[in-house]
Amino acid sequence: MVKREDGRKPDEMRPIEIKAGVIKNADGSAMVKFGKTIAIAAVYGPRAMHPRRMQEPDRTVLRCRYSMVPFSTTDRCRPGPSRRSTEISKVTREALEPALFLDEIPKTVIDVFIDVIAADAGTRTTGINAASVALADAGIPMRDLVASVAAGKIGKEVMVDLAGKEEEETSCDVPIAYMPRSKQVTLLQMDGDIPVKDFNDVLKMATKSCEQIYKKQKEALGERWIK
Amino acid sequence: MTENVLKTDNSQTKMLKNDKDFVVPGDEIVKSMEYLPGRNCFREGDSLISKRLGLVNINNRVISVIPLSGVYLPKVGDMVIGEVKDVQSNGWIINMHAPYMAFLPLSGIKEFVDTSKTSLSKIFGVGDFLYAKISGASGDSLQVSMQDNMCRKFRSGQIVKIISVKVPRVIGKQGSMINLIKDKTGCRINVGQNGFIWIEGEKEELAKNAIKLVEQESHTDGLTDKISALLENKGGKK
Fold first, then answer.
1. B200 inside 8 A of chain A by CB
2. Which residues pair with B48 in a beta bridge?
3. Which among A22, A28, A184 has a CA at the least distance from the CA of A97?
4. Residues spanned by the domain of B139
């Protein structure tokens, strides 16, 4: 068995901390920590959509903005949208949309702002976890919570929640978002390549970890609302 | 015959959550075809699932979820408090923290106005708070009216904002909670269903604190006692 950088087992995630309701002025918010990675999500709405030409006559629009704050990395990272953050915003939106009932209040928008305040691999998955808790906290009708984690392969070993240097060593990195109740995958990306039989192991391990995250998300919401 | 059917069905019913249990979106409440989905619930296969974060409410065969958070969804007949956002040639745009802006047409006010002589901003200006009734809510259009006798413009006092789903607790059963606060503080209070509350009186701050406490602890038992204790203590000190 390959020893991991921080001594974790292959199927063990970093220590997770989830807190709902961290931003007072947002309709819903959440903070999620995965080891050294921290993401904060704020949800506003459903509210009137401006500019009006962007509103949909029969449904609510979900608008996601993922960004990394300048001090989130060791080198300063340039603020504002980049090619990378635009792409992650899009996949985040598509990972969350299947979980929402968007046809109940037409012509409105739900804004989701995800800020990564400390980045140490797995920022998009951490962001999705935070956004999902924040959406539930905002009282938005949902089919299920979305849990998200990455899995990959280092050498011959399949591992979950790659962190730090591991991400550079992997031959394959697969971030997924998953709705545990209906067992549906809403995000599936892959960097690198992997044999099909190993891919199934990666997917199995990631979905199993998502179930654990799902439990923590529920606990966090419970703590926020029922003291 | 009916009894028989119920008996066989009951054996298949699997209650996963009880009345007043906390649920998050996606939580299964019951696995049975015997129950019907009410508000904030949906059916998937055999099971009834919560749509929103809230507390389970089981009413005979209907299961619903009472939400703990979320924006105000307007209903016709609700009394609301809104802020004038804009004055137009034929009415006012009202913001009441709902997903849509509301419109108060000139025909929605009691007095007759000759638009060629008086400008509408003389009647209600931008920033005024109004107590109004929702007269129309269909699709994305929302209309309010001031025809009701209770409707008026607030000239003094202050506005407190709470989450709209907590409004029923602030009012209490048959107005018990709000009457308690009114009696103990001597304040005049108007509650809008959208979560805006207008307070006026000498002990405005005390009334405000009491309302905020109701909002924070709306799900706990013995809330009326807590509030009356708070009001008594503060009243005694003064």
1. no
2. B30, B43
3. A184
4. 79-153
Residue B237, pLDDT > 70, answer no
B186-207 residue pLDDT tens: 999 999 999 999 999 998 999 9
B61: which residues sit within 8 A by CB, 6+ positions away?
A: B34, B35, B36
* Domain A16-221, CATH among 3.40.50.720, 3.40.50.1260, 3.30.230.70, 1.10.3720.10: 3.30.230.70
Read off the pTM: 0.90
Output DSSP code: residue B208.
H
ipTM of the complex: 0.89
CB B102 within 8 A of CB B96: yes
A27 within 8 A of A15, measured Cβ to Cβ: no
Q: In the block, which residue shows the tokens 């199934």?
A: A200
The answer to whether residues B49 and B34 touch, using CB atoms and an 8 Å cutoff, is no
Chain A residue numbers touching B140 (CB-CB < 8 A): 106-108
Over residues A102-145, the pLDDT tens digits come to 999 999 999 999 999 999 999 999 999 999 999 999 999 999 99
Min distance A194 CA to chain B CA atoms (Å): 33
Length of chain A: 227
Query: Is residue A65 helix, strand or coil?
Result: strand
Distance in Å from the first CA to the final CA of chain A: 43
Which pLDDT tens digit goes with each residue over B201-234? Answer: 998 999 999 999 898 887 777 888 888 888 887 6
Q: Give the mutation candidate from B20, B23, B24, B217 for the A interface (greatest A CB count, under 10 A).
A: B24
Query: Helix, strand or coil for residue A128?
Result: helix
Q: Is A179–B26 a contact, with Cβ atoms under 8 angstroms apart?
A: yes
Give me the helix-helix angle, B176-185 and B223-237, nearest 10°: 0
Structure tokens belonging to residue B121:
């901003």
